[in-house]
Specification:
CATH class of the largest domain: Mainly Beta
Helix content: 40-55%
Strand content: 15-25%
Structural class: alpha+beta
CATH architecture of the largest domain: Sandwich
CATH topology of the largest domain: Jelly Rolls
Number of domains: 2
Strand order of the largest sheet: 1-2-9-4-7-10
Distance between the termini: 79 Å
Amino acid sequence: MSMKSQDPTESKTTKPLQWQVFTLPVGLKAAMIKDTAQRLELALPATGEKGFTLSVINYKGDLRIQPEGGMEQDASPGLSLLSRMERPLTFRCPGPIQFTALAVFIPEAWAKLFFDGNAQFDKIVQVLEDGESIITCRLGRRQLSLFSASLAAGQGTAPHLLNVQNNALSLLEYFLSNRHRGLLGANPVSDIENEDDLSLIREVESYISECYCSDTFTVDSILKKTYTSYHRLNFLFKSIHGMTISEYIRNKRIEKSKEMIADNAKSISQIAYEIGYSSISNYILAFKKVYQITPGKYKKQMDSLV
């Protein structure tokens, strides 16, 4: 498979970001990158062939992805994406970013040779042909380790291509198996109907329920735990709950405080502290925003019922 040269990407750094391109022993092409930039506008290398590209990405920043001729969409760290090889993806970030990526290029002839009759692959191809530009799959800890190992094996003047290949094929197998479960018997998935996005939301909801009253609990702790971005979580929470993740956490805290006020065992300031507010004034404003009454007035109403 020939690989067209890719123009260097302007990133406003001292050097442009560029892909390292390899020919793997099994006959596929792969490209990888690990770098930091003040901004990002980076396209996958063009191949001039039809087929599929499995891209695995991780980053710190605010990343957007756009297939050639398609709509730009949000991304999240620790993500694998399958797209058409003839519609190369472009990765964009308007500000500073640490970006790592591995792309495996799968020509149609190679896919037919190795995946002919494979139900998982056939279903995924059908979804792409029915209009989906990108199919995504979140990576687990083991897959993130395989991704890191692939990048490490590709470094230096003598890259260990067999290791890169073995890890890349394991990531491809995981993608096919995981996405197959979400796609069988379903229409093309949207961002929110995506099984992985729903799983992420459930994981975050569970984590919030366990930790939201802790004085060390922050949104940043959620981002680090789930390997995702604030922008992505906000998008998902707004789509499912109709509010941002910060509003969701605030409501959980205020709802808990309302129960504690009704118990009439602690003062307003004690309650504010125990649900994670270091400022009593911020707690009062938050309570009033949710229930249109101050916690003090609500306590008086509860006391009058006793």
